[in-house]
Amino acid sequence: MSRTRVNNFSISLDGFGTGEGQSAEAPFGHAGDRLHQWMFATHWWHGPGGSGGVDDALAQRFEPGIGAEIMGANKFGYPGWHEDPAWKGPWGPNPPFHTPVFVLTHHTRPSIEMEGGTTFHFIDASPAEALATAREAARGQDVRIGGGPTVVRDFLAAGLVDHLHAVVVPIVLGRGVRLWDGLEGIDTQYEVEATSTPSGVTHVTFTRPGV
Amino acid sequence: MSRTRVNNFSISLDGFGTGEGQSAEAPFGHAGDRLHQWMFATHWWHGPGGSGGVDDALAQRFEPGIGAEIMGANKFGYPGWHEDPAWKGPWGPNPPFHTPVFVLTHHTRPSIEMEGGTTFHFIDASPAEALATAREAARGQDVRIGGGPTVVRDFLAAGLVDHLHAVVVPIVLGRGVRLWDGLEGIDTQYEVEATSTPSGVTHVTFTRPGV
Fold first, then answer.
1. Which residue of A has its CA nearest to B169?
2. Mutate which of B12, B196, B199, B205 to test chain A, going by most A C-beta atoms within 10 A?
3. Considering only CB atoms, which chain A residues are within 8 Å of B181?
4. Mean pLDDT of B7-13
5. Are the C-beta atoms of residues A120 and A112 closer than 8 Å to each other?
6. Domain layout of chain A by residue ranges
7. Minimal CB count within 10 Å: which of A4, A43, A47, B174?
8. CATH 3.90.1170.50, applies to A4-81+95-207
9. What is the distance between the terminal CA atoms of chain A, rounded to a whole angstrom?
Protein backbone atom coordinates (compact mmCIF):
# COMPACT_ATOMS: atom_id res chain seq x y z
CA MET A 1 0.00 0.00 0.00
CA SER A 2 1.26 3.47 -0.89
CA ARG A 3 1.75 5.63 2.18
CA THR A 4 2.20 9.38 2.52
CA ARG A 5 5.33 10.19 4.51
CA VAL A 6 7.22 13.14 5.91
CA ASN A 7 10.90 12.36 6.59
CA ASN A 8 13.73 14.28 8.29
CA PHE A 9 11.55 17.29 8.99
CA SER A 10 13.47 19.42 11.48
CA ILE A 11 11.81 21.89 13.85
CA SER A 12 13.10 24.01 16.70
CA LEU A 13 12.09 23.53 20.33
CA ASP A 14 9.54 26.30 19.76
CA GLY A 15 8.12 24.54 16.72
CA PHE A 16 9.52 26.49 13.77
CA GLY A 17 10.27 24.52 10.61
CA THR A 18 12.06 27.46 9.04
CA GLY A 19 13.33 30.82 10.25
CA GLU A 20 12.34 34.28 9.13
CA GLY A 21 13.82 36.08 6.13
CA GLN A 22 14.08 33.31 3.56
CA SER A 23 16.13 34.18 0.46
CA ALA A 24 18.12 32.50 -2.31
CA GLU A 25 21.21 32.62 -0.04
CA ALA A 26 19.37 31.64 3.16
CA PRO A 27 16.64 29.09 2.31
CA PHE A 28 15.86 28.67 6.03
CA GLY A 29 16.16 32.37 6.85
CA HIS A 30 17.81 33.32 10.14
CA ALA A 31 17.83 29.64 11.16
CA GLY A 32 20.81 29.15 8.85
CA ASP A 33 21.86 25.50 8.96
CA ARG A 34 21.12 25.04 12.67
CA LEU A 35 18.01 22.93 12.05
CA HIS A 36 19.94 20.41 9.96
CA GLN A 37 23.36 20.03 11.56
CA TRP A 38 22.23 16.68 13.06
CA MET A 39 21.57 15.46 9.49
CA PHE A 40 24.77 16.83 7.96
CA ALA A 41 26.70 14.85 10.59
CA THR A 42 25.23 11.48 9.56
CA HIS A 43 26.90 8.92 7.33
CA TRP A 44 23.92 9.27 5.02
CA TRP A 45 24.78 12.92 4.28
CA HIS A 46 28.47 13.20 5.14
CA GLY A 47 29.74 9.85 3.91
CA PRO A 48 32.84 8.33 5.56
CA GLY A 49 33.32 9.75 9.04
CA GLY A 50 29.63 10.50 9.46
CA SER A 51 27.66 9.21 12.45
CA GLY A 52 26.18 5.73 12.23
CA GLY A 53 23.59 5.57 14.99
CA VAL A 54 19.90 6.37 15.28
CA ASP A 55 20.23 9.77 13.58
CA ASP A 56 21.73 8.04 10.55
CA ALA A 57 19.24 5.16 10.51
CA LEU A 58 16.30 7.56 10.50
CA ALA A 59 17.91 9.90 7.97
CA GLN A 60 18.44 6.93 5.63
CA ARG A 61 14.66 6.44 5.49
CA PHE A 62 14.40 9.52 3.26
CA GLU A 63 14.73 7.78 -0.07
CA PRO A 64 13.87 4.04 -0.02
CA GLY A 65 10.33 3.29 -1.10
CA ILE A 66 9.54 6.83 -2.26
CA GLY A 67 8.05 7.17 -5.74
CA ALA A 68 7.22 10.90 -5.79
CA GLU A 69 7.54 14.06 -3.72
CA ILE A 70 5.19 16.98 -3.19
CA MET A 71 6.75 20.27 -2.13
CA GLY A 72 5.63 23.86 -1.62
CA ALA A 73 6.65 26.80 -3.77
CA ASN A 74 8.81 28.15 -0.94
CA LYS A 75 10.91 25.00 -0.90
CA PHE A 76 11.44 25.10 -4.66
CA GLY A 77 12.85 28.57 -4.54
CA TYR A 78 13.32 31.98 -2.99
CA PRO A 79 10.33 34.36 -2.87
CA GLY A 80 9.79 35.52 -6.45
CA TRP A 81 11.45 32.61 -8.26
CA HIS A 82 8.40 32.30 -10.49
CA GLU A 83 9.45 35.52 -12.23
CA ASP A 84 12.72 33.87 -13.30
CA PRO A 85 12.02 31.53 -16.25
CA ALA A 86 15.50 29.92 -15.90
CA TRP A 87 15.08 28.95 -12.20
CA LYS A 88 15.33 25.19 -11.68
CA GLY A 89 15.49 25.04 -7.89
CA PRO A 90 18.48 25.48 -5.58
CA TRP A 91 19.86 21.93 -5.90
CA GLY A 92 21.98 22.13 -9.05
CA PRO A 93 21.65 19.86 -12.11
CA ASN A 94 21.13 16.60 -10.13
CA PRO A 95 18.61 17.25 -7.31
CA PRO A 96 18.47 14.74 -4.42
CA PHE A 97 14.96 13.45 -5.23
CA HIS A 98 15.41 11.09 -8.20
CA THR A 99 11.62 10.83 -8.70
CA PRO A 100 8.85 13.04 -10.04
CA VAL A 101 8.45 16.11 -7.81
CA PHE A 102 5.21 18.08 -7.74
CA VAL A 103 5.68 21.74 -6.85
CA LEU A 104 2.52 23.38 -5.50
CA THR A 105 2.29 26.85 -7.01
CA HIS A 106 -0.21 29.31 -8.39
CA HIS A 107 2.37 30.09 -11.10
CA THR A 108 2.51 26.89 -13.13
CA ARG A 109 5.07 26.37 -15.91
CA PRO A 110 6.17 23.47 -18.14
CA SER A 111 7.76 20.48 -16.44
CA ILE A 112 11.57 20.43 -16.08
CA GLU A 113 13.50 17.21 -16.48
CA MET A 114 16.72 17.18 -14.44
CA GLU A 115 19.59 14.70 -14.21
CA GLY A 116 19.30 11.65 -11.98
CA GLY A 117 15.62 10.94 -12.44
CA THR A 118 14.13 14.10 -10.93
CA THR A 119 11.40 15.81 -12.95
CA PHE A 120 9.73 18.92 -11.58
CA HIS A 121 6.04 19.33 -12.32
CA PHE A 122 4.23 22.53 -11.40
CA ILE A 123 0.62 22.19 -10.27
CA ASP A 124 -2.01 24.44 -8.75
CA ALA A 125 -3.99 21.95 -6.69
CA SER A 126 -5.47 21.18 -3.28
CA PRO A 127 -3.57 18.76 -1.02
CA ALA A 128 -5.96 15.91 -1.91
CA GLU A 129 -5.72 16.59 -5.65
CA ALA A 130 -1.94 16.88 -5.51
CA LEU A 131 -1.70 13.62 -3.58
CA ALA A 132 -3.86 11.78 -6.12
CA THR A 133 -1.61 13.05 -8.92
CA ALA A 134 1.61 12.21 -7.08
CA ARG A 135 0.35 8.78 -6.05
CA GLU A 136 -0.33 7.89 -9.65
CA ALA A 137 3.18 9.02 -10.60
CA ALA A 138 4.64 7.01 -7.69
CA ARG A 139 3.39 3.73 -9.23
CA GLY A 140 2.57 2.05 -5.95
CA GLN A 141 5.44 3.48 -3.96
CA ASP A 142 5.13 6.01 -1.14
CA VAL A 143 4.68 9.75 -1.61
CA ARG A 144 6.87 12.08 0.42
CA ILE A 145 5.57 15.46 1.56
CA GLY A 146 8.79 17.43 1.38
CA GLY A 147 7.82 20.67 3.10
CA GLY A 148 8.11 23.50 3.93
CA PRO A 149 6.21 23.69 7.20
CA THR A 150 3.10 25.23 5.67
CA VAL A 151 2.72 22.37 3.22
CA VAL A 152 3.34 19.68 5.86
CA ARG A 153 0.80 21.37 8.11
CA ASP A 154 -1.79 21.56 5.33
CA PHE A 155 -1.42 17.84 4.56
CA LEU A 156 -1.60 16.94 8.28
CA ALA A 157 -4.70 19.09 8.70
CA ALA A 158 -6.32 17.35 5.72
CA GLY A 159 -5.66 13.94 7.30
CA LEU A 160 -3.42 12.90 4.40
CA VAL A 161 -0.20 11.98 6.24
CA ASP A 162 0.40 8.36 7.27
CA HIS A 163 3.86 8.78 8.80
CA LEU A 164 5.55 11.90 10.13
CA HIS A 165 9.19 11.95 11.21
CA ALA A 166 9.85 15.27 12.94
CA VAL A 167 13.21 16.09 14.50
CA VAL A 168 13.14 18.49 17.42
CA VAL A 169 16.39 20.46 17.58
CA PRO A 170 16.97 22.05 21.00
CA ILE A 171 17.25 25.65 19.82
CA VAL A 172 14.78 28.49 20.28
CA LEU A 173 14.34 30.21 16.91
CA GLY A 174 11.77 32.73 18.10
CA ARG A 175 10.32 33.48 14.65
CA GLY A 176 9.63 31.85 11.32
CA VAL A 177 6.96 29.40 10.20
CA ARG A 178 5.51 27.00 12.78
CA LEU A 179 4.70 23.38 11.99
CA TRP A 180 1.99 22.69 14.58
CA ASP A 181 -0.34 25.68 14.25
CA GLY A 182 -3.97 24.70 13.76
CA LEU A 183 -3.30 21.01 14.49
CA GLU A 184 -4.82 20.71 17.97
CA GLY A 185 -5.20 17.07 18.94
CA ILE A 186 -3.48 15.70 15.81
CA ASP A 187 -1.41 13.40 18.07
CA THR A 188 -4.51 11.40 19.00
CA GLN A 189 -4.75 10.06 15.43
CA TYR A 190 -1.29 8.50 15.57
CA GLU A 191 1.00 6.21 17.49
CA VAL A 192 3.65 8.57 18.77
CA GLU A 193 7.25 7.79 19.74
CA ALA A 194 9.98 10.15 20.95
CA THR A 195 13.65 9.17 20.93
CA SER A 196 16.49 11.47 21.88
CA THR A 197 19.99 10.81 20.55
CA PRO A 198 23.53 11.83 21.54
CA SER A 199 23.51 14.64 18.96
CA GLY A 200 20.95 16.39 21.17
CA VAL A 201 17.94 16.10 18.88
CA THR A 202 14.73 14.19 19.60
CA HIS A 203 13.14 12.16 16.83
CA VAL A 204 9.35 12.25 17.09
CA THR A 205 7.47 9.84 14.87
CA PHE A 206 3.73 9.90 14.25
CA THR A 207 2.53 6.66 12.64
CA ARG A 208 -1.08 6.09 11.67
CA PRO A 209 -2.27 2.81 13.20
CA GLY A 210 -2.83 0.00 10.74
CA VAL A 211 -1.23 1.73 7.77
CA MET B 1 25.67 29.30 45.90
CA SER B 2 21.92 29.84 45.61
CA ARG B 3 20.62 28.99 42.15
CA THR B 4 17.34 29.84 40.48
CA ARG B 5 15.64 26.70 39.17
CA VAL B 6 12.60 25.61 37.21
CA ASN B 7 11.67 21.96 37.81
CA ASN B 8 9.12 19.60 36.27
CA PHE B 9 7.79 22.24 33.90
CA SER B 10 5.67 20.42 31.30
CA ILE B 11 5.00 21.76 27.84
CA SER B 12 3.28 20.31 24.78
CA LEU B 13 5.07 19.55 21.52
CA ASP B 14 3.82 22.91 20.30
CA GLY B 15 5.23 24.69 23.33
CA PHE B 16 2.19 25.38 25.49
CA GLY B 17 2.71 25.28 29.28
CA THR B 18 -1.01 25.49 29.92
CA GLY B 19 -4.14 25.13 27.83
CA GLU B 20 -6.85 27.68 27.20
CA GLY B 21 -9.83 28.28 29.50
CA GLN B 22 -8.26 28.07 32.94
CA SER B 23 -10.73 27.89 35.82
CA ALA B 24 -10.95 26.69 39.43
CA GLU B 25 -11.97 23.25 38.13
CA ALA B 26 -9.48 23.18 35.27
CA PRO B 27 -6.25 24.89 36.35
CA PHE B 28 -4.59 23.91 33.04
CA GLY B 29 -7.66 24.68 30.92
CA HIS B 30 -8.43 22.33 28.04
CA ALA B 31 -5.09 20.55 28.61
CA GLY B 32 -6.68 18.81 31.59
CA ASP B 33 -4.07 16.55 33.20
CA ARG B 34 -2.41 15.53 29.92
CA LEU B 35 0.70 17.63 30.53
CA HIS B 36 1.38 15.92 33.86
CA GLN B 37 0.48 12.26 33.45
CA TRP B 38 4.19 11.39 33.19
CA MET B 39 4.66 12.93 36.65
CA PHE B 40 1.60 11.35 38.24
CA ALA B 41 2.98 7.95 37.18
CA THR B 42 6.28 8.40 39.09
CA HIS B 43 7.08 6.95 42.48
CA TRP B 44 7.63 10.52 43.64
CA TRP B 45 3.98 11.40 43.07
CA HIS B 46 2.20 8.07 43.11
CA GLY B 47 4.11 6.25 45.84
CA PRO B 48 4.28 2.44 45.76
CA GLY B 49 3.70 1.16 42.24
CA GLY B 50 4.97 4.38 40.67
CA SER B 51 7.73 4.36 38.06
CA GLY B 52 11.31 4.43 39.27
CA GLY B 53 13.38 5.47 36.25
CA VAL B 54 14.54 8.73 34.76
CA ASP B 55 11.11 10.38 34.98
CA ASP B 56 11.10 9.70 38.72
CA ALA B 57 14.70 10.77 39.29
CA LEU B 58 14.09 14.11 37.61
CA ALA B 59 10.71 14.62 39.31
CA GLN B 60 12.37 14.04 42.70
CA ARG B 61 14.58 17.09 42.08
CA PHE B 62 11.56 19.30 42.75
CA GLU B 63 12.04 19.74 46.48
CA PRO B 64 15.59 19.07 47.72
CA GLY B 65 17.68 22.22 48.10
CA ILE B 66 14.80 24.62 47.51
CA GLY B 67 14.34 27.38 50.09
CA ALA B 68 11.60 29.46 48.44
CA GLU B 69 9.29 29.51 45.41
CA ILE B 70 8.10 32.35 43.22
CA MET B 71 4.82 31.79 41.35
CA GLY B 72 2.47 33.81 39.20
CA ALA B 73 -1.03 34.90 40.15
CA ASN B 74 -2.51 32.43 37.65
CA LYS B 75 -0.84 29.51 39.40
CA PHE B 76 -2.11 30.60 42.81
CA GLY B 77 -5.70 30.59 41.66
CA TYR B 78 -8.40 30.83 39.04
CA PRO B 79 -8.95 34.16 37.27
CA GLY B 80 -10.54 36.48 39.82
CA TRP B 81 -9.33 34.75 43.00
CA HIS B 82 -8.16 38.08 44.31
CA GLU B 83 -11.79 39.07 44.82
CA ASP B 84 -12.25 36.13 47.23
CA PRO B 85 -10.67 37.05 50.59
CA ALA B 86 -10.90 33.42 51.80
CA TRP B 87 -8.96 31.94 48.83
CA LYS B 88 -5.80 30.16 49.93
CA GLY B 89 -4.81 28.46 46.67
CA PRO B 90 -6.02 25.15 45.21
CA TRP B 91 -3.76 22.84 47.23
CA GLY B 92 -5.73 22.38 50.47
CA PRO B 93 -4.43 23.06 53.98
CA ASN B 94 -0.95 21.54 53.41
CA PRO B 95 0.42 22.77 50.06
CA PRO B 96 3.31 20.84 48.47
CA PHE B 97 5.87 23.63 48.84
CA HIS B 98 6.93 23.60 52.52
CA THR B 99 8.81 26.89 52.11
CA PRO B 100 7.96 30.56 51.74
CA VAL B 101 6.11 31.11 48.45
CA PHE B 102 6.02 34.52 46.81
CA VAL B 103 2.94 35.11 44.66
CA LEU B 104 3.41 37.83 42.03
CA THR B 105 0.21 39.88 41.94
CA HIS B 106 -1.00 43.42 41.55
CA HIS B 107 -3.56 42.60 44.27
CA THR B 108 -1.43 42.15 47.37
CA ARG B 109 -2.92 40.91 50.64
CA PRO B 110 -1.55 39.83 54.04
CA SER B 111 0.62 36.71 54.15
CA ILE B 112 -1.07 33.36 54.80
CA GLU B 113 0.63 30.71 56.90
CA MET B 114 -0.39 27.18 55.92
CA GLU B 115 0.39 23.77 57.39
CA GLY B 116 3.64 22.01 56.57
CA GLY B 117 5.88 25.06 56.37
CA THR B 118 4.31 26.86 53.40
CA THR B 119 3.68 30.58 53.83
CA PHE B 120 2.18 32.56 50.96
CA HIS B 121 3.43 36.12 50.55
CA PHE B 122 1.85 38.43 47.98
CA ILE B 123 4.14 40.89 46.26
CA ASP B 124 3.86 43.33 43.38
CA ALA B 125 7.43 43.27 42.05
CA SER B 126 9.62 42.86 38.99
CA PRO B 127 11.33 39.49 38.44
CA ALA B 128 14.65 40.84 39.76
CA GLU B 129 13.03 42.37 42.86
CA ALA B 130 11.01 39.23 43.54
CA LEU B 131 14.12 37.07 43.20
CA ALA B 132 16.07 39.25 45.65
CA THR B 133 13.24 38.92 48.18
CA ALA B 134 12.85 35.17 47.67
CA ARG B 135 16.61 34.59 47.80
CA GLU B 136 16.79 36.26 51.20
CA ALA B 137 13.91 34.09 52.44
CA ALA B 138 15.63 30.98 51.03
CA ARG B 139 18.61 31.47 53.40
CA GLY B 140 21.25 30.25 50.99
CA GLN B 141 19.15 27.54 49.35
CA ASP B 142 17.86 27.59 45.76
CA VAL B 143 14.81 29.52 44.59
CA ARG B 144 12.29 27.71 42.39
CA ILE B 145 10.36 29.58 39.72
CA GLY B 146 7.11 27.65 39.89
CA GLY B 147 5.26 28.94 36.83
CA GLY B 148 2.97 29.42 35.03
CA PRO B 149 4.52 29.77 31.60
CA THR B 150 4.32 33.58 31.57
CA VAL B 151 6.31 33.82 34.80
CA VAL B 152 8.94 31.27 33.69
CA ARG B 153 9.28 33.12 30.38
CA ASP B 154 9.67 36.49 32.15
CA PHE B 155 12.44 35.13 34.40
CA LEU B 156 14.21 33.48 31.44
CA ALA B 157 13.98 36.72 29.44
CA ALA B 158 15.48 38.63 32.37
CA GLY B 159 18.43 36.20 32.49
CA LEU B 160 17.52 35.10 36.01
CA VAL B 161 17.20 31.31 35.55
CA ASP B 162 20.24 29.09 36.23
CA HIS B 163 18.59 25.72 35.57
CA LEU B 164 15.48 24.89 33.56
CA HIS B 165 13.96 21.40 33.48
CA ALA B 166 11.27 21.37 30.81
CA VAL B 167 9.35 18.22 29.93
CA VAL B 168 8.09 17.98 26.36
CA VAL B 169 4.91 15.90 26.24
CA PRO B 170 4.14 14.62 22.71
CA ILE B 171 0.69 16.16 22.40
CA VAL B 172 -0.42 19.07 20.25
CA LEU B 173 -2.49 21.43 22.43
CA GLY B 174 -3.07 24.04 19.74
CA ARG B 175 -3.87 26.91 22.13
CA GLY B 176 -3.00 28.22 25.54
CA VAL B 177 0.07 30.03 26.86
CA ARG B 178 3.43 29.34 25.19
CA LEU B 179 6.68 29.03 27.12
CA TRP B 180 9.22 30.04 24.44
CA ASP B 181 7.72 33.21 22.97
CA GLY B 182 10.16 36.11 22.92
CA LEU B 183 13.12 33.94 23.90
CA GLU B 184 14.96 33.69 20.56
CA GLY B 185 18.47 32.32 21.06
CA ILE B 186 18.02 31.63 24.81
CA ASP B 187 19.51 28.15 24.25
CA THR B 188 22.92 29.67 23.45
CA GLN B 189 23.27 30.80 27.08
CA TYR B 190 22.97 27.26 28.43
CA GLU B 191 24.28 23.74 28.21
CA VAL B 192 21.32 21.84 26.79
CA GLU B 193 20.50 18.14 27.14
CA ALA B 194 17.50 16.21 25.79
CA THR B 195 16.57 12.78 27.12
CA SER B 196 13.50 10.85 26.06
CA THR B 197 12.06 8.18 28.36
CA PRO B 198 9.75 5.18 27.94
CA SER B 199 6.74 7.23 29.09
CA GLY B 200 7.05 9.15 25.81
CA VAL B 201 8.18 12.49 27.22
CA THR B 202 11.50 14.22 26.56
CA HIS B 203 13.28 15.92 29.42
CA VAL B 204 15.09 19.04 28.21
CA THR B 205 17.49 20.65 30.68
CA PHE B 206 19.07 24.07 30.27
CA THR B 207 21.97 24.54 32.69
CA ARG B 208 23.94 27.77 32.89
CA PRO B 209 27.64 26.96 32.54
CA GLY B 210 29.68 27.38 35.70
CA VAL B 211 26.73 27.87 38.05
1. A194
2. B196
3. 14, 174
4. 98
5. yes
6. 4-81+95-207
7. A47
8. no
9. 8
